[in-house]
Amino acid sequence: MPRPAPGSFLNEEFRCRFGSLPYRLYTPKGSTLRRMPLIVMLHGCSQTASDFAIGTGMNGLADELGFLVLYPQQSTGANFARCWNWHNPDNQVRGRGEPALIAALTRHVAKLGRANPGRIYIAGLSAGGAAASIIGAAYPDLYVAIGVHSGVPRGNIRSLSAAIAAMRGRHESGSSERLPRQLPTIVFHGDKDRVVHPSNADGFLRNIERSGAGPLIARSHSGTAAGGRAYTRRVYGNLRGETLLEDWSVHGSGHGWSGGHAGGTHTDPAGPSASREMVRFFLSHRR
């Protein structure tokens, strides 16, 4: 099958032994010769792939910077509100459920679009952010880095009630068990988020600390976006100079994609561009 034409936005359905999933794939304008990075974008509850593409503006950045964008779309048959079922134990491990289905779709699209296998990334909003964290951890051989916006960190949540408690900021005492190496992660969260409590952002740093990454070097920067939102950006790296985590707190922002377009749902156009910053972060990491 030929590579999709530059500027095309495919609307297809993928089927494999793990199930089926609608998806949209954007191929940027420009040369068809080079092997481009691929970014997988997981929408939040009630959203569609098309809505998420509009709200995040990722397709425009793809034209500017040269990468493929895959938008898997949850079916109402799997979840009536189109939420990814990240709280279900069947969807939290390699080789089963939604992680296996999305990983298989990612590999299919990478082959179709002739993506660079060393530059594949996954990101998401809210339920999509929690799912991205889980899927990236389950397939570190496929994904190079993770982006989470307004999401819950990977942990010991095994039920809907536990997920709701975590979203409200009620966290059980965490395990001290050592974790495997964490993929480089960039996190955005509004500090006035009333859907997913902003304290969830701290869990990503705790997971890195539990992974035996060694002493962390932290630096912080505060600023104001062109739209008027103030923010604080904290960067955590190791002694080898590798960035392991970027944590953006957007002051005054609620549950919406920072710097997103008002034409999409769940966006905050006044904040710094989460899309541009995630792309910058992703493209700085390769296998």
Automatic annotation (TrEMBL):
<dbReference type="InterPro" id="IPR010126">
    <property type="entry name" value="Esterase_phb"/>
</dbReference>
<keyword id="KW-0378">Hydrolase</keyword>
<dbReference type="Pfam" id="PF10503">
    <property type="entry name" value="Esterase_PHB"/>
</dbReference>
<dbReference type="InterPro" id="IPR029058">
    <property type="entry name" value="AB_hydrolase_fold"/>
</dbReference>
<dbReference type="GO" id="GO:0016787">
    <property type="term" value="F:hydrolase activity"/>
</dbReference>
<dbReference type="InterPro" id="IPR050955">
    <property type="entry name" value="Plant_Biomass_Hydrol_Est"/>
</dbReference>
<keyword id="KW-0732">Signal</keyword>
<protein>
    <submittedName>
        <fullName>Alpha/beta hydrolase family esterase</fullName>
    </submittedName>
</protein>
